[in-house]
Design brief:
By secondary structure, the chain is α/β, with parallel strands linked by helices. The protein is built from nine helices and twelve strands. The structure holds calcium ion (CA). The site of calcium ion (CA) has 6 residues, from loops.
């Protein structure tokens, strides 16, 4: 990989914040402050647009204003939590001053933290950073359920067994670990280097190409047609992304 491509990849792999807010001046204010801190920012003006953006590519965190037209922020929060792909996506909600009920409901619906309007952008960014640290994918593995089941895929994390459409598949340990990582972190794009860090571990001395070899083997075991993969997708010159929707 030559340096300019690596540079571009790093830029694309910046942590991404989705700001859901119908007031464009507040979106602008947040975008400015997040970009100053090196985050990539996406915006959605209402709940439907937010769901659409999340389905296409999940952000690392959502800043969610509760006062939205059509679908309320509470409803959006509930839907994100009900979907296994986004159940653990960090959500910072923004509530109106004095809207105590919203705040309580929002936390009950699964928001991770809140700020009250009018907020200080610096404080909001600090809260976001704290949430992202807590959501570090390397942590929290212990609270995962023991079995993943969606559509034709079933993974038993305790027994290290994988079934595709009811048929047991023999996976090498590293293939199993790679698939486990993918199902636990759907929709997001990971570079080969990130996968090496997160699946192989930082201290292993293997080439990024090793990831490609394992992805190829994994595809042969779980894809319907490994020449046209629909589960483990290649994102050109960036890395790989797991698409659980193709399991249904
Ligand atoms: Ca609003």
């Amino acid at each position: 990989m030559n340096p300019p491509v690596a540079e571009a990849n790093r830029a694309r792999l910046r942590q991404k914040i989705l700001v859901v807010e119908d007031e464009s001046d507040i979106r602008e204010l947040l975008r400015f402050n997040f970009e100053q801190e090196g985050f990539a920012v996406e915006e959605a003006g209402d709940g439907a647009e937010a769901l659409d953006r999340v389905a296409r590519r999940a952000p690392d965190l959502i800043v969610l204003d509760l006062m939205l037209p059509r679908m309320s922020g509470l409803e959006l929060c509930r839907r994100l939590r009900a979907n296994p792909d986004t159940a653990r996506l960090p959500i910072l909600m923004v509530t109106a001053k004095g809207a105590e009920v919203d705040r309580v409901l929002g936390l009950e619906m699964g928001a991770d933290d809140y700020v009250v309007k009018p907020f200080s952008p610096r404080e909001l960014v600090a809260r976001v950073k704290a949430l992202l640290r807590r959501a570090n994918p390397a942590a929290g593995a212990a609270e995962e359920p023991a079995v993943y089941e969606r559509g034709r895929l079933r993974m038993d994390f305790g027994a290290y067994e994988v079934f595709v459409a009811g048929e047991r598949k023999e996976l090498a340990l590293r293939e199993f670990e790679l698939l486990r990582f993918f199902v636990r972190h759907p929709l997001r794009v990971y570079s080969r280097e990130q996968l090496l860090d997160l699946v192989w571990g930082r201290d292993t001395f293997v080439e990024p190409r090793t990831v490609d070899v394992h992805v190829r083997r994994l595809r042969q075991r779980i894809e319907r047609d490994d020449a046209n993969p629909e589960l483990i997708l290649t994102v050109r010159s960036v890395g790989y992304r797991f698409n659980p929707e193709a399991l249904e």
